[in-house]
């Protein structure tokens, strides 16, 4: 389609050859400017202008090299991106900081320094809820007519999910153009002293490039990990900052106390930039307030949004905990609208109900893997049972409780007379109907990273569900299909790996079995466990996720038409993404 195709092996020579005539014309003009400075009242400005034209001549319409689209090119981009993933353990203490100053070198190499200074950024950190907060905020601003850019992590199915323009994932064509522009330029300009950026840093740089080239009015950035040393913290003058709920997570990197974790998150505070947070544990709040005071930051604590303010509408993201995230988002969006949009927005205390754009924005927000309900379309049959997946990427003790509460209310509403269509955020919403059958069985499909403590996660999940009268018939433990050293797509998910190490999954199963036995007051010894189906009956370990999905579907087909299987998928956003890939294939 295009005259020039730039792939991962493109060199600067090939690029210059493609635009030789235009480049030569501009180069002559640039030389002419240097030779006759007395005729140019703004010489430095004109030289920069001409250089920018040369750069743009080697770029496409969006300020990037135009490249052929297609799966081959896209897979090449994913392979190049995968090469930036470091092999170091997440628990490697030497990760702290990790030469954070390099991020500014990369911005200089990509000529993004001025662009990032002009960018109107909303910056959000936190342990849980920061992605949802960012999604709510973006949706509000978009409903006011502003062009938005949203950067979140991780992605669940496709890396392009991380970059949203006006509420939609960036197109494959644009992604490829921006990707190779950044990747090739960094490949040419980095060296031993300034090596290629690591995976997440590159993605953050790519987001900066995309949002600058696309001329977004508002850039909403979710911190990847921590705050102080996160690549998104290259933004030196955001419009407003937010800190969502804090808790214990990534302690191997951020610290083993809430105070230390809060200190890392507060690293996004900037001198004089307003900030908002939600009610926090005392230890965390003291640290946030101290950091805010030190930097002359006006830190405001916002309460959860009330149903009254929404005028009868429901939030686009389900779960009671989302009202807390929505409340934070309202304050972030209001501040941006007042400072940048120059709009008069009343404070929440002055509102009877929220403005129409706020309500519509909050009600139409979508974010995969957060309190998402997706029916399995492969088991639709009048002669068999029914299978529905309830997906939530909860992976901390606090988020496990919120997830369990949401799941409990969701399955209860699902099994009663009221329609639960509002619970469905997945693309299969239209096929998810209220269940009129006689029997429902709740099953847990779980995995988490080995740096997390299942003795904290699983009891919070199980006990909270039990508190609301929901009891799991069985728990299934599986390894993730997506791997941390490779960025892939649905096409490359392995069906089964007989060599996979299941020691962590058996550890998870052991914790679950001990919970079951302690509830029953049964002090009997550990049950013998084997592979794929040889278990105690309370839980099973599968060698792969496809095997677990097959087991679920087989059970549905063998059951009566009066049975609905309700499967909670939790513990890892990677697992949630893997499940979505499989059931949507």
Automatic annotation (TrEMBL):
- Residue numbers spanned by region Disordered: 518-540
Segments passing through the bilayer: none
UniProt keyword list: ATP-binding, Ligase, Magnesium, Metal-binding, Nucleotide-binding, One-carbon metabolism
Query: EC number(s) on record?
Result: 6.3.2.17
The cofactor remark states: A monovalent cation.
Q: Which reaction does it catalyse?
A: (6S)-5,6,7,8-tetrahydrofolyl-(gamma-L-Glu)(n) + L-glutamate + ATP = (6S)-5,6,7,8-tetrahydrofolyl-(gamma-L-Glu)(n+1) + ADP + phosphate + H(+)
- What is the required cofactor set for this protein? a monovalent cation
The reply to whether Lipoprotein figures as a keyword in the UniProt entry is: no
Identify its protein family.
Answer: Belongs to the folylpolyglutamate synthase family.
Give a short account of what the protein does. Answer: Catalyzes conversion of folates to polyglutamate derivatives allowing concentration of folate compounds in the cell and the intracellular retention of these cofactors, which are important substrates for most of the folate-dependent enzymes that are involved in one-carbon transfer reactions involved in purine, pyrimidine and amino acid synthesis.
Q: What is this protein called?
A: Folylpolyglutamate synthase
In the UniProt record, what gene is named as encoding this protein?
LOC104768791
